[in-house]
Q: What sequence folds into this?
């Protein structure tokens, strides 16, 4: 018996002006096996930028502005959103605007890496303003002014991206957080420029510096050199080992005595007497008076009078221009106390 002729196949494209439509999807058969998903990590050790005196050269390097704030990881999970600090503390409730913006992102699961910042009138990130918005070191206030500048995507819709090269991670991040947004989560944009030129422009505009990242690198915790930071003004964390009293200064603090680490011990690197505000100085004096020490934690022969020594438990963020020939900070300025939830590491002298 002869089979009836088949109906002619539909052409790949119909009329030129006709709309192309896909077939409606059928519901997934529950018995059909699913693709396995990567387990979502509870925390990822952050990749840190290595301090360098000059920007690297080569086509593999991408450049961004260096933001001056608190490092954050935003975890978007089926159960909700968590905001984790660099030190592993849960600060979800302290950044309500960032939390609300994370909930609006069009993604089921993700981990965004970025920096929480507060901007000044010129649009520059200001570490002091961020600390004030949170109530200072050890404060418990929420910051509604803070926004997150997102610069990496480590987990996305069930997939661990840490083993993927930076260029691919950035491509996915830019699709999730578009450039030019005004939400509380914004894209830290790559800037197409020569590193030396960008650093010069950043310094002229009063920015802290720039960050260079190897586009071909995977994401690894610690300072492996895949990310590098180049600063306009040097800064770092220095242990406060004492202070000089003065009845004419805010909080009776004429100067703080600072120390860095060298060969496993603390060494004296000078003092700082500028950058204090009245209310901050009073709080700082109260904290220092609770940890007074009989003997200094460093060898000291500076000749200052009216010195009070303290245990080296407080770490101050200090800006400075350079180092003197005898290993002291040149033109230092106090920026604030570092918080244990962010970073308490003390500057190490090589």
A:
């Amino acid at each position: 018996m002869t089979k009836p002729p088949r109906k002619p196949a539909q052409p790949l494209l119909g009329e030129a002006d006709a709309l192309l439509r896909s077939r409606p999807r059928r519901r997934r058969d529950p018995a059909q096996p699913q693709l396995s998903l990567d387990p979502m990590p509870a925390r990822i050790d952050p990749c840190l930028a290595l301090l360098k005196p000059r920007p690297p050269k080569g086509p593999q390097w991408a450049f961004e502005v260096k933001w001056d704030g608190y490092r954050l990881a935003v975890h978007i999970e089926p159960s909700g959103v968590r905001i984790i600090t660099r030190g592993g503390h849960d600060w979800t409730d302290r950044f309500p605007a960032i939390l609300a913006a994370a909930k609006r992102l069009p993604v089921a699961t993700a981990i965004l890496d970025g920096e929480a910042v507060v901007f000044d009138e010129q649009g520059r990130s200001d570490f002091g303003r961020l600390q004030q918005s949170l109530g200072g070191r050890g404060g418990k206030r929420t910051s509604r002014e803070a926004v997150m500048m997102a610069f990496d995507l480590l987990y996305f819709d069930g997939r661990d991206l840490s083993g993927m090269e930076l260029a691919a991670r950035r491509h996915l991040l830019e699709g999730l957080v578009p450039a030019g947004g005004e939400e509380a989560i914004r894209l830290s944009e790559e800037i197409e420029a020569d590193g030396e030129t960008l650093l010069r422009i950043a310094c002229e505009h009063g920015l802290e510096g720039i960050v260079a990242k190897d586009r071909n690198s995977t994401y690894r915790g610690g300072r492996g050199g895949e990310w590098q930071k180049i600063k306009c003004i040097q800064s770092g964390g220095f242990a406060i080992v004492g202070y000089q009293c003065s009845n004419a200064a805010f909080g009776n603090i004429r100067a703080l005595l600072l120390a860095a680490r060298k060969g496993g011990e603390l060494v004296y690197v000078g003092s700082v007497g500028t950058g204090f505000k009245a209310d901050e100085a009073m709080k700082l004096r109260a904290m220092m008076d609770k940890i007074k020490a009989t003997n200094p934690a460093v060898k000291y022969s500076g000749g200052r009078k009216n010195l009070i020594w303290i245990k080296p438990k407080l770490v101050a963020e200090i800006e400075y221009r350079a180092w003197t020939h005898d290993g002291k900070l040149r033109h230092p300025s106090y920026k604030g106390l570092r918080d244990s939830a962010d970073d308490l590491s003390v500057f190490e002298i090589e």
User: Anything to note?
Assistant: The radius of gyration is 26 Å. The CA atoms of residues 127 and 263 lie 30 Å apart.
